[in-house]
């Protein structure tokens, strides 16, 4: 009846107390209650506590319950899912929800009596996208052990996942091993898609030996090379010198790698042109540009042949051949002219990739005067819509050619989402170096007005370059006023004051975005909390103060009201800079007075805010 000693002791004590009450005189009700409470308290203190279950047993129990729950869910789903296609769709939806264990258990259970190649492919693809290379290969091996035969899609998923793996060396060994098994087995013969995927794995890892070994397995049947095949190989050869640089090889060894890559590429290109002439493959823009960018790494002769390559394959005219037909250029790298050029359908249309290649080639070969002609030809004849990279390449060529007018036109034609501080800096730098153009400062004003209209907060460095263009582009002013030097100096002062007037309100807006601790008041401020950006803003203020000093001290302005305004603004700028320095408690470093060629001095002080 009693299950423990404590309960037995309590029961016996109760019986004894009742018998004593019957034999002795009745005690008072208070004494009886007190005795009962004492008995209750004494019996309660001696009850032992039950031991808790160990933590490992609790975890095992929870895992067992979870497993049982998964099994129940899988069993319930399989009662309704009989078609392999429906099972594959359900597995895909389950993986999209992140329930990999449930999907795996369902596929394993259903694989006992159903062919579920598509479902296994979903599992392998999921693990590959999660960068679980080992787990994906294990699933592939388990798939075969369960008599689930891989199909062509299975190998495509594996090779594509290897190409995107974060461990390229390991991916190469696995991809090459599986590919060689496919070639030797013959049940699923590798196709061109598989060939290209494995080549891409080798190229990404920089393993050219394995890449060329795989390339030798190409044939004229199911593994017939196409344009994508040669594009992968040429890009791998182009990036091979970059792998050599990462190994910290000297210049001689790096140049040897470049020469070897270009010599290999020329041999491959002969095969490309032969196949194109015979109609076996179709070339595209990516393939041509891959060869062109590899030639750009070579010597002067290789660089010079890029335009000839584009003419031969893409029918891009040769504007550099003065007095000659644009279609009579001969190859500089023994590139055979194509008979397929007579068929317009086989000639790809140049696009953004080709435009960037041409602009970069013109910048390297210093044929900057041809850039506007090619730009106009691509955008009008070929209908290319320039992207951000195209504009940057074009502006860089114009900057080398000191063509400020064309630069301003290009920047004004850009979309708002392409405009960034770097674009404005390029534009003002071009205006600074275009000293012989009397419209250089006017072009800088156009760019500056666009920057103010499109930017919430102007770039301090770009503003400083704009002010420099006003102070530097004065050669034509002095040439126009040779007979009257005073008039020339006043014209220079007027130009500097024009720049300062344009800068005043935008710069005040920029400085108002910072509080007195040197940090922006708005969390979404353009400049964030970068110390370098605050330093750029302070340096711009110093340049404005220096320009005001030049105008006032050298008497470049005769208008008394304008002089009064400049002096007042100088005081405000000076107090603002001093306030920043004092707030941060950083001593102001000593500045240097830079002497100009004309004897003027410019007080440029480095400042850290």
Automatic annotation (TrEMBL):
Domain of life from the UniProt record: Eukaryota
Stretches with biased composition (Low complexity): 325-334
Pfam families for this protein: PPR_2
Region called Disordered, residue ranges: 321-343
Family membership: Belongs to the PPR family. P subfamily.
Official protein name in the record: Pentatricopeptide repeat protein
């Amino acid at each position: 009846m009693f299950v423990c000693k404590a309960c037995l002791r309590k029961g016996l004590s109760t019986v004894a107390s009742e018998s004593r009450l019957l034999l002795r005189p009745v005690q008072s009700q208070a004494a009886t209650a007190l005795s009962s409470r004492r008995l209750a308290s004494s019996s309660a203190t001696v009850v032992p506590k039950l031991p808790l279950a160990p933590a490992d047993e609790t975890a095992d129990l929870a895992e067992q319950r979870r497993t049982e729950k998964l099994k129940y869910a899988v069993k319930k789903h399989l009662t309704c899912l009989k078609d392999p296609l429906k099972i594959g769709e359900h597995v895909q939806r389950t993986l999209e929800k992140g329930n990999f264990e449930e999907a795996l258990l369902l596929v394993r259970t259903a694989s006992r009596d159903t062919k579920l190649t598509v479902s296994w492919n979903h599992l392998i693809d999921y693990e590959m996208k999660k960068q679980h290379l080992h787990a994906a290969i294990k699933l592939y091996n388990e798939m075969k052990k369960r008599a689930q035969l891989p199909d062509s899609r299975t190998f495509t998923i594996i090779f594509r996942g290897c190409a995107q793996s974060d461990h390229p060396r390991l991916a190469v060994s696995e991809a090459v091993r599986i590919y060689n098994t496919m070639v030797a087995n013959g049940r699923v013969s590798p196709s061109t898609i598989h060939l290209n995927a494995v080549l891409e794995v080798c190229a990404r890892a920089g393993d050219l030996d394995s890449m060329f070994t795989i390339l030798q397995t190409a044939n004229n049947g199911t593994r017939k090379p196409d344009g994508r095949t040669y594009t992968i190989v040429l890009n791998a050869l182009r990036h091979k010198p970059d792998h050599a640089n990462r190994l910290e090889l000297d210049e001689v060894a790096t140049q040897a790698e470049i020469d070897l890559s270009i010599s290999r590429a020329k041999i491959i290109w002969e095969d490309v042109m032969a196949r194109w002439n015979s109609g076996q493959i179709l070339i595209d823009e990516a393939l041509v540009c891959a060869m062109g960018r590899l030639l750009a790494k070579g010597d002067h002769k290789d660089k010079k042949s890029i335009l000839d390559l584009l003419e031969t394959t893409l029918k891009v005219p040769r504007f550099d051949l003065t007095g000659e037909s644009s279609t009579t250029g001969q190859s500089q790298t023994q590139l055979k002219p194509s008979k397929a050029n007579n068929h317009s359908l086989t000639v790809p249309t140049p696009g953004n990739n080709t435009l960037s290649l041409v602009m970069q080639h013109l910048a390297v070969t210093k044929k900057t005067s041809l850039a506007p002609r090619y730009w106009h030809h691509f955008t009008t004849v070929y209908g290319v819509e320039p992207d951000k990279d195209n504009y940057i390449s074009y502006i860089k060529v114009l900057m080398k050619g000191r063509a400020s007018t064309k630069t301003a036109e290009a920047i004004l034609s850009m979309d708002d989402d392409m405009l960034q501080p770097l674009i404005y800096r390029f534009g003002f730098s071009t205006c600074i170096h275009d000293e012989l153009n009397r419209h250089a400062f006017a072009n800088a004003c156009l760019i500056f007005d666009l920057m103010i209209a499109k930017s919430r907060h102007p770039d301090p460095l770009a503003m400083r370059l704009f002010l420099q263009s006003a102070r530097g582009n004065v050669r034509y002013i002095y040439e126009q006023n040779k007979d009257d030097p005073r008039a020339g100096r006043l014209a220079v002062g007027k130009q500097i004051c024009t720049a300062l007037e344009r800068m005043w309100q935008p710069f005040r807006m920029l400085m108002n975005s910072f509080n007195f601790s040197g940090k922006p008041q708005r969390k979404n401020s353009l400049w964030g909390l970068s110390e370098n950006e605050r330093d750029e803003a302070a340096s711009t203020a110093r340049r404005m103060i220096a320009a005001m000093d030049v105008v006032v001290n050298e008497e470049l302005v005769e208008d008394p009201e304008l002089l009064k305004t400049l002096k007042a603004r100088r005081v405000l700028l000076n107090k603002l800079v001093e306030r920043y320095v004092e707030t941060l408690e950083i001593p102001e470093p000593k500045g240097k007075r830079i002497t100009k060629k004309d004897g003027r001095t410019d007080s440029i002080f480095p400042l850290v805010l």
